[in-house]
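Quick one, tokens below:
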């Protein structure tokens, strides 16, 4: 019997970069138009041939990906030296020399920005007077983004120490899941997430890892026009397949499969010597199995099972991934030939969950476009020009994290996660596709643009999922208006006062 289909309720991804999907079948290459993205979006057309970012999916030594605020990003690749290394935090770097274009953008972005008074809620008074428009152009370096980034860089050393412990755990789990006669034979690490994207910036005690499992011959059915959640069926009855025990009326039940995955992991962690690991209580509706390493230090690890689907992307993604003008149509086509993933994130039905639903995830694509993020193939490589895209993303994430730290879960700030910031950041990249708009020297202005964009999203209550434009991550179903107003007041205050929150805590 088919499960009941209730009213769809989408949720922002709290763990995996999640999204959800409807029926399979999607345009691979052509997209009619890019999402009339939030405030505004870029138009398709450009054809730059950027590097195709194929994310590695081979079985490699497991490494971890860290998580931001139980959400979906964090950290830094484990010391793997790449061309994408941190820019040297240049002390005494020349003041930003804004290009005419970025200045204009920043100026127009600032125009109309209310000079916020002291924000509501607790908090120290202003540390610096709200700058006037003119002043900002004369002294754009009023706050020190490079010093903030240096602080984050130091944190990453701490992160890689913790990552080594997580790697040991992950390695163990993968070996056991593959060696026994389990339903999860063939499971492998999906090397995506902030840790691999090298943008994990804090929370060295929190990591996310995704375990992918290829599932052949599946068919998706959109859940209640949600665009984001779906039911999974098999094209042919998988007689004898270990997965048939998870079928519920012909539908692969996310909660059943997750329960089994959880049970196996729970058995296995008891066999790990030299490490004290326990499993945390199950959280309803969450796709993650949360483990806690207790010694020698506390580290929490969210393990997320992801089904790998090698069919064409669902129709709901057709207008998504608006990178034509930025990375180019060829890169886009090649990315869309990659598989996509489904995580057992249940759709909400009023106050309860729909137990059989899965949600789309494109975290591997996010990783790919962050890695090869420039129009020039050599952007940020040793011999290339350094841009400030990743720094902007790190600062954005840090801003949200610091505000969440400052205000706790008051006013619904717990509803916001780094995935929101990352999504907004991608939209800003779409709107500003040229490398010349992201000169490293223009970090302050570029960051200011990102912040302004995020504010617009909060105010318009619209943040389109970058892959599924019909999904609004800031809809009222997801986050109430008052929370958005509160966060936008706080961010405005920070923006107008040189981001004092970066120096707190
Ligand atoms: Zn770059």
């Amino acid at each position: 019997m088919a499960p009941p289909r209730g009213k769809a309720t989408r949720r922002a991804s709290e763990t995996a970069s999640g999204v959800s999907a409807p029926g399979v079948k999607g345009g691979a290459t052509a997209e009619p138009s890019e999402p009339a993205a939030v405030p505004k979006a870029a138009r398709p057309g450009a054809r730059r041939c950027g590097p195709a970012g194929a994310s590695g999916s081979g079985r490699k030594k497991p490494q971890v990906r860290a998580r931001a605020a139980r959400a979906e990003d964090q950290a830094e690749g484990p010391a793997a030296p790449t061309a994408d290394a941190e820019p040297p935090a240049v002390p005494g770097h020349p003041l930003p020399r804004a290009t005419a274009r970025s200045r204009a953008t920043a100026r127009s972005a600032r125009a109309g920005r209310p000079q916020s008074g002291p924000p509501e809620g607790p908090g120290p008074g202003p540390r610096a007077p709200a700058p006037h428009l003119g002043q900002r152009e004369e002294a754009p370096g009023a706050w020190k983004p490079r010093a903030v980034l240096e602080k984050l860089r130091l944190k990453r050393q701490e992160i890689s120490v913790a990552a080594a412990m997580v790697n040991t755990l992950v390695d163990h789990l993968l070996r056991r899941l593959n060696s026994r006669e389990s339903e999860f034979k063939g499971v492998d690490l999906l090397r995506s997430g902030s840790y691999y994207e090298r943008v994990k910036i804090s929370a060295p005690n929190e990591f996310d890892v995704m375990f992918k499992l290829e599932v052949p011959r599946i068919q998706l059915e959109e859940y209640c026009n949600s665009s984001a959640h779906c039911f999974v069926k098999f094209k042919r009855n998988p007689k004898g397949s270990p997965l048939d025990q998870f079928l519920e009326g012909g539908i692969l039940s996310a909660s059943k499969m997750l329960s089994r995955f959880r049970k196996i992991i729970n058995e296995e962690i008891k066999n790990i010597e030299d490490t004290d690991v326990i499993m945390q209580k199950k959280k309803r509706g969450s796709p993650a199995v949360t483990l806690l390493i207790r010694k020698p230090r506390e580290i929490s690890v969210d393990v997320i099972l992801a089904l790998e689907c090698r069919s064409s992307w669902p129709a709901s993604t057709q207008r998504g991934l608006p990178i034509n003008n930025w990375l180019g149509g060829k890169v886009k086509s090649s990315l869309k030939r990659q598989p996509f993933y489904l995580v057992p994130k249940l759709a909400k039905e009023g106050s309860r969950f729909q137990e059989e639903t899965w949600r789309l995830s494109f975290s591997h694509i996010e990783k790919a476009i962050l890695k090869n993020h420039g129009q020039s193939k050599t952007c940020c490589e040793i011999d290339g020009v350094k841009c400030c895209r990743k720094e902007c993303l790190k600062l954005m994430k840090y801003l949200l994290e610091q505000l969440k730290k400052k205000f706790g879960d008051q006013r619904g700030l717990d509803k916001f996660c780094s995935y929101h910031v990352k999504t907004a950041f991608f939209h800003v990249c779409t709107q500003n596709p040229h490398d010349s708009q992201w000169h490293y020297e223009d970090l302050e202005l570029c960051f200011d643009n990102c912040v302004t964009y995020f504010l617009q999203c909060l105010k318009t209550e619209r943040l389109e999922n970058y892959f599924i434009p019909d999904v609004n991550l800031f809809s009222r179903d997801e986050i109430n208006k008052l929370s958005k107003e509160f966060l936008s007041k706080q961010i405005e205050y920070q923006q107008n006062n040189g981001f004092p929150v970066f120096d707190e805590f």
